[in-house]
Every structure is written in C-alpha cells, then in structure tokens.
Design goal:
By secondary structure, this protein is mainly β. The protein contains two helices and 13 strands; from the N terminus they run E-E-E-E-E-E-E-E-H-H-E-E-E-E-E. The longest helix is centred in the middle third of the chain and has 9 residues. The protein is flat and about 65 Å long.
C-alpha cells in the first residue's frame, strides 16, 4: 500500500484498491480540504462481510457525520447521523436473521473468535432478533440520551460439558435515559434444559 500526503487547503480525490490475506478488499473515493475528510463510497470487504460508508470526518474535533451499512453472514446493521465528543444525533439498526451463521463468522475472525469463545469446535448458538438504538448527545457527554429497544424471537445455546442447553423466546428488552438517570425493562421466556420461567423485570 502507498500513502500519499495531500496538500492542505486543496481538494483531492483518490481511489485505492487493496487485496490482502483473508480475502480482504478496500476501496474509497475521498477528498481533503485541510480540515475535513469527505468519504464517498467507502467499501471494505472481509471474509464474506462488507462495510459501506459515506460521510465527513473532522479529525480536529473527532466528529463524524454520515451513514454506514454492514452486511455479514446472518447480520445486517446500519447507522445514520452525527457523533462527536460533545454533540450528536442519530440511529443504529441491527437485525440478526441467522444466529448460527453469525456465530460461525465471528468464530472464524482472528482474536474475536477466541475472545467470544466461538473458535474451534465450540457449539454455535442460534437465534433471530432486532435492535434499534437512538442517540442524542456526544459519546463523552454525561447527558448522552439513549433509547434502545431489542426483540429476540428465539435464542438457543447448545449444551457443553460444563453447561446444559439454555435459551430464550419472545424476549423484549428496552433501555432509555442518560448515564445518570435511566430506565430498563425486560420480558419474555427463559429455559434451561427442561426448566422454564417467565421473565418480567423493570429497573
């Protein structure tokens, strides 16, 4: 890979294509005006997953304003909005339609698979679910407002030598508020081996 310095105060466009081990690809068109880096059509591919993004990054203020979309085996994720240290607003959407495929993909990634306990011959969990997170405020601001909702239709974690099968059905999770004042609730059905329980909790 070759890095080229762009003169400050001038607009430049460049496109780089990189092919490295583990079937990774990268391409992007960008411009730099001395203060902001504008990304247009960033595409990153790695092991059957792809990331697409476009927006503006301001390094001096650590501020990002744009949108991104991630597609991976069993997973779709998208975000749109602005996020900086002290201000921001936007939304993140997650959808898991095949938990087994997602767990298998994560297990094959360097470091990640080991960290999550999904590498090697580990039994893979299965499930489907969706989540939506809305934010209002900066990532280091104590007044960051979150409104998160998740719906888990089904989750099954296979038995191991140390633990029986367990899982959940029709699980609904909600979290909203700030770091200083927040509310959370959860409801659904949990089961462990042949035992089952109804869950209804509010905090």
């Amino acid at each position: 890979a070759v890095a080229t310095a762009l003169p400050g105060g001038k607009n430049s466009n460049s496109k780089q294509f990189i092919s490295i081990k583990r079937q990774a690809t990268f391409s992007s068109k960008f411009s730099w005006n001395g203060q902001r880096l504008a990304l247009d059509g960033l595409k990153l591919g790695l092991d059957n997953a792809s990331l697409h993004a476009q927006g503006t990054l301001t390094p001096r203020t650590q501020d990002w304003d744009g949108e991104a979309r991630l597609l991976a085996p069993g997973l779709q994720a998208s975000s749109q909005g602005r996020l900086g240290p002290d201000a921001g607003q936007g939304q993140l959407n997650l959808a898991v339609d095949d938990g087994t495929a997602l767990a298998r993909w994560l297990g094959g990634l360097p470091v990640v698979g080991q960290a999550l306990g999904l590498a090697g011959g580990t039994p893979m969990p299965s499930g489907q679910g969706q989540a939506t997170v809305q934010w209002d405020g900066g990532w280091r601001s104590p007044t960051l407002q979150l409104d998160a909702k998740a719906a888990l239709q089904q989750l099954t974690v296979p038995a191991t030598a140390a633990s029986p099968t367990w899982g959940a059905q029709a699980l609904a999770l909600a979290l909203n508020g700030t770091a200083a004042q927040w509310q959370a609730s959860a409801s659904g059905q949990l089961h462990r081996d042949t035992l089952g329980a109804q869950l209804a909790v509010s905090l």
